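Aim 2 progress. For LexA repressor, the working sequence is reproduced below.
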Amino acid sequence: MLTRKQHELLMFIHERLKEAGIPPSFDEMKEALDLASKSGIHRLITALEERGFIRRLPNRARALEVLRLPDSIAPGLNAAKKFSPSVIQGSLGRPQPKEAPRLQAASNDDDVAASISIPVMGRIAAGVPIAAIETRTHSISVPPDMIAGGEHYALEVKGDSMIEAGIFDGDTVIIRNASTATPGEIVVAIVDDEEATLKRFRRKGASIALEAANPAYETRIFGPDRVSVRGKLVGLIRRY
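Predicted structure tokens for this construct:
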């Protein structure tokens, strides 16, 4: 049996994975449960892991996977497909990952027909020039269930500023075109019409805050006329 706080955290992680495809940061979990420090979150995560409800993914900084939900709350959800990042096999000869990937290199005509091609618009890192995300470099194929409505594009991630959100150096993020965002969403933001960055969108009074998911990076705060949103994160692809 879970305590109330353990149950709240488990459901918060589960809902965030369903909505965004990535686990919440420790700061988000702390705020959602109204705890005073991250140490309380660490204890709750350890308890959930020991009880077999979640697991911490190896070699992925603070990335979490929900293994099951309490049967008394949602008996049908435990049979649902678990979240794992989409995978494209990087090269021939590498061993297959232990878990079945959601997306692999196309092996037959049916796979090709079922996928959707979207453009890769360069590489994004903290403060890269805007021109770096305005030139199409190539295209990738993604499964239809990864995107839903609207125009999409992809960006290759460089750097570790979003590791606590489960986004790592070398990942390819899938972005849906958008010019507005809700606080808490991860966005492609343009600052002063000069630089582009992938950060979590926040509001600080009348100002806009671009928040990294890595304590080594400071949150940057700007006047609302200095920041424009160019899209919202909807998924990612990881190469192994």
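The domain at 4-69 is CATH 1.10.10.10 (Arc Repressor Mutant, subunit A). This observation will guide construct design in the next reporting period.
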